[in-house]
Structure formats: C-alpha cells, structure tokens
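User: Thymidylate kinase, Linum tenue:
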Amino acid sequence: MEGDSSKGNKGSLKTGGGSNDPRGALIVLEGLDRSGKSSQSARLVSYLEGIGHSAELWRFPDRTTSVGQMISAYLSNESQLDDHTIHLLFSANRWEKRSLMETKLKSGTTLIVDRYSYSGVAFSAAKGLDLHWCKAPEFGLPAPDLVLYLDIPPEKAAERGGYGDERYEQLEFQKKVAECYHALRDSSWKIIDACRPMEEIEKQLQGIVLDNIVACKVGKPISQLWSS
Ligand code: Z5A
Ligand code: MG
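Assistant: Predicted structure for Thymidylate kinase:
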C-alpha cells in the first residue's frame, strides 16, 4: 500500500553529482517505537552488501557527535531542555551530517537511514509544537528517495520487547506521534504492515528498495526536503 497523498515532499531540484556517475539512494525507515526500524535497517544493509551494492546504515539521532550526546542525555532524562531547544538540536544533528550524506550519495553509496526528519517533526508536534514550525529547520536537507513507514498500532508495538526508560516510550504519547506521522505522508512514502513476521517484512522491503536504487541510478536527481 502506498502513502495516501499524491503531494510530493520535494522542493526545487538539485542535480546529482554533477557527473553521469550513478548515485546511491537515500532510504529512510520511520515508524513508532518498537515498529522494527532498527531490525529491518540492519537486515536491509546486510542484504544489499551481500548482493554487491555499496550501502551504509545510518541512524538519527547520531549520538556520537557532541550535539548527539546532548540529545542522548535528554532522552535518558539526565538533562532537561525546552521543547523547542531539543527540537532544534535534533535538526542540527541532521545538518551536521548533511555534507557527508550528500558526498556518500553522489559517490554511489545507498544510505539506509533509521529515523530522519519525520521523527523530528512527529515527536515534537506530538508534544504540541506547531507542525509548520517543526518542519522549518528541516527545509533544504536531502529529501529521501523513499520512506518506508513501518505501520503498527501503538498498543501492539508496546507489547514488543517492553518500553525502556527513555522519555517518549509511553503509550498515550505514541498514539499522538502516530497521528502526527500520518499528517506527514506524501508520495515518497510506502506504508508497510509491520505486524507481520520479521522475515516477511524483510522480503517485501528488499524488493521495494532494489527498485528504488535502480531508479536513482538512472539519473533521478537528489532533491531537498519541504522547500516548496
Ligand atoms: N527522536 C526525536 O524526538 N526527534 C528526532 O529528530 C529523532 C528522534 C531522529 C530515540 O530513538 C528517540 O528519539 C525516539 C524518537 C526520538 N523516541 N523514543 N522513544 P531511537 O531510534 O534511538 O529508539 P530505539 O531505541 O532504536 O527504539 P525504536 O526505534 O523505538 O525501536 P525500533 O528500531 O523501531 O524497533 P527494533 O529495535 O527493531 O525492535 C524492537 C523490538 O521488537 C525488538 O525486540 C525486536 O526483536 C522486536 N521486533 C521487531 N520487529 C518485529 C516483528 N516484525 N515481529 C515481532 N517482533 C519484532
Ligand atoms: Mg531503533
């Protein structure tokens, strides 16, 4: 099943590497906590490498940077920050990786990204921040070629592996996050039924991702998020 809107997320187009070299695809996995993003991202990268594609696993937040360490302290309740401030830090954490992201894509490496700007907007908007305000700092980041949304009812996700101690891992909050994700769907999204067995989902994702990688290789330019 595809995303339910025909409205694209892409702004003004920007060329690929400035050469005719095939580029990699920017593929993002999104979904509620415990929907299986990290499991499926890792499996996808292993699969792609196994069949000879250049692919890397990325995740946001990237907790290895100094901004990422501030985010990590916040998520584990070791520090308190204003909602707007933490929102901008999450966004800064993506911007600090933008240049490397583009370099990798232009050199032909496909990036499988575990959470991206959609998490940023959905989680902050679920706290009550204005959706348009939340989107603004993301304008101009590379737009994903494909968003795989792992769709699962919040109650079902909560049964998996148990929520941990991080601050957003609460059922009522996750329900609000699901509504905000819904408002962000566009034509780059594929909605994946994440209630099925892991192996079944894995197979489905492999087919979708391979098609997308081929489309990027034949000249689809890299575009920018939400700039229109
Ligand atoms: N956040 C934000 O606010 N703003 C931002 O800009 C960004 C993030 C980028 C940290 O995320 C928090 O930051 C997150 C959003 C917020 N909120 N919270 N809480 P994180 O990515 O570090 O969170 P995580 O620790 O990786 O957990 P996760 O993402 O919630 O889980 P997941 O990756 O989707 O699921 P999983 O780890 O692959 O699987 C979870 C369990 O379910 C595990 O036991 C699996 O074996 C099991 N599982 C997975 N798939 C299945 C299937 N199909 N069947 C049965 N069991 C399954
Ligand atoms: Mg995860």
